[in-house]
Write a structure and sequence with these properties.
single chain, alpha/beta, TIM Barrel, 2 domains, eight-stranded parallel beta barrel, two-stranded antiparallel sheet, 24 helices, 45% helix, globular, disordered C terminus
Length: 548
């Protein structure tokens, strides 16, 4: 009997998140849901990741209602979501009561499979979510964030797979977010995990670097059971490999793939004109459809690279891109080799930009990097740069040894009181906890008729507007704030036209960035009306960047 390979269709979540920055409104795919229900996918990934944020911020949809409507239209197909472990669907850790209740309501509203990952592969940040997933009757799929570094070895990934099994996971997913896992690496890792862990094994990769079809095939040969794919209209580039092509190739090689080809083609036919529309509107930049083999070196996800290019152009610093790309591995090394996945890809990318544009390595540290060094995001995979630890934690300090969530009080009831009359459901409370300002704007529009902020959908084909839609909001906001700070530094002039102390610091960025040595302590500057504490940073930006 031939072995059956399941396919998870990602067009409603990761495919459109990778190519459209999750800007696909419900009405664009609603007519095809009943057909998707009949294709025979192993599952359909339709929720989680950045969909929650984008629904509230840009699409003006209730993400919970979106899930309920998908569930109603697809009663016979397993619906899947991506959960960022203790970070839920946000970009920072949340208390345990938030994690548990988010899982509970996700299952209640229609989710069958929850794929759970932590950006540092710290199992302590997975335990609560896995336990809650099992408690409320869903399938817990524990994810291994794949990356290459001196501290990420096959043995470390195998150990993590065993820990996920012991925590009660029903399946294991190798999550290759950058498309950097080569075919031999896939074959060896799948073989090793399968020899130790008797659970279904899922492969998630991206087409970004061009490795996907080879990697997927060798993974299947080694025993992988399920592959993530996307209907061909929104496949390739920063997205997944095409569903239709995968099914054809696997069958030719003797595997069974239980999808209805005619219905799968109908699904693709629905999305083909939408792809053209998204290109015309500027939502889908052709850049996202190309192959970027340089990702094998820098390990930078495609969307992150696109946004860095756009932001450097906005500062007339596009010629520094190579410097930024070269700096990313240095920052990653100094931070203990975190996998470049949310939120770590954002932290590393922004810090690399700051290092290059300021002309000194770590002259400024972003607030997120400081929190990471303190241990608030979890345990770093490798050793942190001791100089950075000293600067952030003090002369004899060190990152916290325990789980940061253990220091956080329950949040739900407090948030319910803050929301007041807007807290119409438990789901509303969780939306507010995840994205307070955005959710409140949505609730005031929904309940009081207040106008919403202008949508971020582009009206034309302006290059910078298109590129800004490629990456998630945390990265975009952080880069834009840093770039504004740098621009302010450049224009901070005294009345006589002499370059001020702050602008002089930025002028040094014109010279090549120094090599590996950390910067010495910054010399204090005389205070002025823009920089009252004299640290060389405009006061309005000190909540994002700091000189230590």
């Amino acid at each position: 009997m031939n072995r059956t390979i399941g396919l998870t269709e990602t067009v409603l979540r990761d495919a459109q998140q990778s190519q459209l920055a999750t800007r696909m409104p419900f009405e664009d795919f609603a007519p095809i849901l009943s057909t998707m229900n009949e294709v025979g996918y192993y599952s359909v990934e339709c929720w989680g990741g950045a969909t929650f944020d984008a629904c509230l911020r840009y699409l003006h949809e209730d993400p919970w209602e979106r899930l309920r409507r998908i569930r109603k239209a697809m009663p016979d197909t397993k619906l899947q979501m991506l959960l960022r472990g203790q970070n839920v669907l946000g970009y920072r850790p949340y208390p345990d009561d938030v994690v548990e209740n988010f899982v509970r309501l996700s299952v209640k509203n229609g989710i069958d499979i929850i794929r759970i990952f932590d950006g540092l592969n710290d199992v302590r940040n997975l335990e609560v979510a896995i336990r809650a997933t099992k408690k409320y009757g869903a399938i817990a799929s524990g994810a291994i964030c794949y990356t290459n570094s001196p501290v990420h070895t096959p043995e470390s990934f195998i150990s993590l797979a065993c820990q996920l099994r012991d925590l009660g996971c029903d399946s294991i997913c190798i999550k290759d977010m950058g498309g950097i896992m080569g075919p031999q690496e896939a074959y060896d890792l799948v073989t090793a995990i399968k020899s130790k862990v008797d659970l279904p094994l899922v492969i998630h990769t991206h087409s970004t670097t061009g490795q996907a079809p080879f990697t997927m095939l060798k993974a299947v040969e080694a025993g992988a059971d399920v592959l993530d794919t996307a209907c061909s209209a929104l496949a390739g580039g920063t997205s997944q490999y095409p569903t239709e092509s995968t099914a054809y190739a696997l069958r030719q090689l003797g595997y069974d793939v239980e999808i209805d080809d005619a219905k799968a083609r109908a699904v693709n036919e629905h999305f083909k004109p939408l792809q053209k529309k998204y290109v015309a509107e500027g939502l889908l930049d052709p850049y996202c459809l190309s192959t970027r083999p340089e990702g094998l070196v820098y390990q930078i996800p495609g969307g992150m690279l696109s946004n860095l290019i756009a932001q450097l152009k906005s500062q007339n610093a596009a010629d520094r891109l190579d410097d930024v790309l070269a700096e990313v591995p240095n920052v990653r090394r100094d931070l203990g080799y975190p996998p470049l996945v949310t939120p770590m890809s954002q932290m590393v990318g922004v810090q690399a930009c700051v290092n290059v544009l300021m002309g000194k390595r770590y002259q400024m540290l972003t607030s997120e990097v400081k929190s990471y060094i303190r241990g608030e995001y979890g345990r770093a995979p490798g050793a942190l740069n001791p100089e950075l630890v000293r600067r952030v934690c003090g002369e004899n300090g060190h990152p916290m040894a325990g789980r940061f969530a253990d220091t956080m009080p329950p949040r739900i009831e407090e948030a319910r009181k803050e929301l007041g009359a807007h807290a119409k459901t438990d789901e509303d409370v969780l939306s507010y906890i995840a994205f307070p300002q955005v959710a409140m704007q949505y609730f005031e529009w929904r309940d009081d008729g207040k106008p919403l902020p202008a949508s971020a959908k582009p009206k034309g084909k302006d290059e910078s507007t298109q590129a800004k839609l490629i990456l998630d909001e945390k990265m975009l906001a952080a880069i834009e704030t840093v770039m504004k700070a740098v621009q302010d530094l450049r224009t901070h002039m005294d009345d006589k036209g002499a370059v001020s102390k702050a602008a002089a610091a930025v002028q040094k960025a014109a010279a090549p960035a120094p090599a590996a040595a950390p910067a010495p302590a910054q010399t204090p500057y005389p205070p002025d009306e823009f920089d009252k504490d004299g640290n060389g940073i405009p006061d309005e930006h000190e909540h994002i960047i700091s000189p230590t």
